[in-house]
Amino acid sequence: MDGAKGMNSLRYYFFDLPLWGLGVRSERLANRLENFLSSDALQFRTAFTSLNRYLGQAAEKPPVEEMTGKALWVRIIRESDAYASLLMTKKKMKDYFRVEGMEHLTRILPSRRPIFLLTGHIGSFFIPAIAFAHMDVSVYPIARTVGTAHELPFARRLFEKLNYTLSEMRFSSRYIFTSYPGIIDRSLIHICKSGGLVWAAIDFPRSFYPFKRTPVKLLGFTSSLPSGLVRLGLKYDAVFLTAWNTVETDSPRHFYRRLTIDPPLPEGIGMSAILQNYADRLSSVVIRQPWEWAGIQVIDEFCEKEACD
After folding, report:
1. Exposure of 256 in the CB half-sphere (CA atoms within 13 A)
2. Residue 202 and residue 123: Cα distance in Å, rounded?
3. Average pLDDT rounded to a whole number, residues 52-68
4. CA angle, 291 as apex, 246 and 287 as ends, to 5°?
5. Could you tell me which residues come within 8 angstroms of residue 46 by beta carbon, excluding any fewer than 6 positions away?
6. How does pLDDT run across 131-182, given as a tens digit for each residue?
7. pTM
8. Residue 249: its pLDDT value, please?
9. Strands 197-201 and 221-226, sheet pairing
10. Which helix (H) or strand (E) holds 244?
């Protein structure tokens, strides 16, 4: 870690984010948080420009600067949720979450079949298991193991480990970890056999995860998505739904998390159709609220044809 940059990272992850997550809302703190992410703003602007190009006239698009500002605050809220999760008790759940579509899930819980909640890197995607726990439903989030020292700076690696530790304290379940080559904790098999619930973000571009992929149309262009978890779910006769945990805000200081559970995907369709249905629903969320999607920063890597250039 080099000098001032390293110290700024430590302050952001282990001083400023905890203050924000635990409720401090000073102008000075807000400015420090935004300033730390100033280098990301250019990346967001470029990404939103790419998104507008891909969509063409298919959707009404807010100005790039407006989307960039919202994206930075979604990231701050998502990362500060590592600490805010400590305050997310059952009694205070309504202060943090609004839940829509829970009837889609409760209707299929009695079937005792495994349930795969397919999501994306949307909003505050780490913590929905807390909301489910407070509704007396145990959901197991699938998460990637923390990167190595060669992949991530020290402060970021330490923060990601702390994020998993702190947020899991409010779960009625635990994280199920998968490594880069796709090696998953074998306890996932037991969860499937016992009719458990899994929360899985599968929107990884090929450059992040090149294994077991299936072609899809995403945001109007040719792409592909990892298929391993869907294959596993089909093997154990799982029910597939999509769900998203967006950050809804009218200002950086007034926000909540909207957990939306969509109707189940059609029964009896194969792996390719499941992934295309998922891609269609993800596309709809991104078109409607592009600042929510962490994948926007690498949007060009999702496009796998020269036509995207």
Report:
1. 12
2. 14
3. 79
4. 90
5. none
6. 999 999 999 999 998 988 778 899 999 999 999 999 999 999 999 998 766 6
7. 0.94
8. 76
9. unpaired
10. strand 239-251
